[in-house]
């Protein structure tokens, strides 16, 4: 079964692996995870593979890099929240 998570909740999921971690290992760890975006869906492992750094020191670092590879439309309208759903 594929895991599905909202982009607003991605950091908590990224905390499930040990850091520091290299990009390839992180991408492989989440290759079966679907990231739900405001404008569709994406494979979390593929997105991690598109990030720039070779290694990440923390889930926060990886989250920042993910936000750099998804288009602004994928995150949603400014000022909106996906709530607690």
Plain-language structure description:
With 85 residues, this protein is an alpha+beta fold. It has one domain (3-75). Helix content is 39%, strand content 20%. It has a 3-stranded mixed sheet with strand order 1-3-4. A two-stranded antiparallel sheet has the order 2-5. Strand 3 and strand 4 form a beta hairpin. It is globular, with a radius of gyration of 12 Å. It comes from Halonotius roseus. This is DUF2795 domain-containing protein. Pfam families: DUF5789 (PF19102). InterPro entries: DUF5789.
Provide a brief overview of the structure:
InterPro entries: DUF5789 (IPR043899). It comes from Halonotius roseus. With 85 residues, the chain is α+β, with helices and mostly antiparallel strands.
How much of the sequence is in beta strands?
Answer: 15-25%
Indicate the structural class. Answer: alpha+beta
The profile of the biggest β sheet is: 3 strands, mixed
Strand order of the largest sheet: 1-3-4
Q: Helix count?
A: 5
Stretches where pLDDT falls below 50 for ≥5 residues? none
Determine the fraction of residues in helical runs and give it as a percent range: 25-40%
Cα distance, first to last residue?
A: 21 Å
Q: Could you give the count of β-strands?
A: 5
Q: How confident overall, as mean pLDDT?
A: 88
Rg calculated over all Cα atoms: 12 Å
Order of helices and strands: EHEHEEHEHH
Pfam families: DUF5789
Protein name: DUF2795 domain-containing protein
InterPro entries: DUF5789
